[in-house]
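Researcher: I'd like a candidate sequence for this fold, 72 residues long. If you have to choose between options at a position, lean toward the conservative one.
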């Protein structure tokens, strides 16, 4: 599966309220799935690292950057 397609699918699954961004609680669920329950502190640290514009949400582009950095 191509990276963009994978990120699109991840985004659709975890943007539960379909508002076009992944909010903090949705992000915690995403990280829980991706990192296999490594803890809330890690989620907070990662969220803050990838929420580049400090909007308290993760855009699709920010998610793509996160996936590239953490998963590849």
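Model: Candidate sequence:
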């Amino acid at each position: 599966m191509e990276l963009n397609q994978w990120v699109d699918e991840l985004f659709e699954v975890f943007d539960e309220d379909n508002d076009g961004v992944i909010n903090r609680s949705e992000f915690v669920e995403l990280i829980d799935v991706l990192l296999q329950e490594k803890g809330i502190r890690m989620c907070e640290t990662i969220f803050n690292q990838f929420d580049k514009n400090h909007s308290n949400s993760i855009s699709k582009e920010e998610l793509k950057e996160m996936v590239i950095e953490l998963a590849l």
